[in-house]
Prior knowledge:
The chain is of the alpha/beta class. The protein has eight helices and 13 strands. 30% of the residues lie in helices and 26% in strands. The protein starts with a strand and ends in a 7-residue tail after the last strand.
Amino acid sequence: MNKLYVVGMGPGAYEEMTIRAVKTLEKCQVIVGYTLYVELIREHFPDKEFFTTPMRQEVERCRLALETAQGGRTSAMICSGDAGVYGMSGVLLELGREYPQVEIEVVPGVTAAVSGAACLGAPLMHDFAVISLSDLMTPWELIERRLRSAAEADFVICLYNPSSRKRADYLKRASDVLLQIRKSVNLCGIVKNIGRENAGSRICTLEELRETQTDMFTTVFIGNSSTKEMNGRLVTPRGYVW
């Protein structure tokens, strides 16, 4: 059986990849991925053959990986964070039905919700929801409904893909939805370039978040009604201390 691994490479730094992910890539002959992600790890696997495709060519990238594995070379598709959280594992498993001779194995990684939370402190100590603001695959009306439902249920909310050049006002629009339910002083956290150069984080209020400029390399956290700032860290108490 020909083998294709779908590998979550974590936030970007080699040191933040799981041991299993590193060992998997070491035994692969070919590594396939989005151009930026490949450049982040290329120097650590110099003896591998790399295939890349740009943004918006996810299906083509997956077919390339499947066809490479079908040709007899052990291959890996790399994804940032975790391969099953807005990654390529779902697409590959769907397309994999057309390649029955290829065995697909998913190797988990550290997603931005987890690595970003660590930068801020402990904002995800209680129930939380992860929502992407990208409307490429999901209508904005549905995103808005999910935001409102999560806010009403008092979830901590983690936002992926908060804005881009074409969606410059999406975080502001999301904040307006949340401000209909949450208080303006609701604590939030912003983390940029997790695990990479120029990484940074800060704590702000929901009102301040509304006016904040972000990009696709930013992860946003909206605390719940219990979230507090403690010694400069964002913490959502679970209740153990009390």
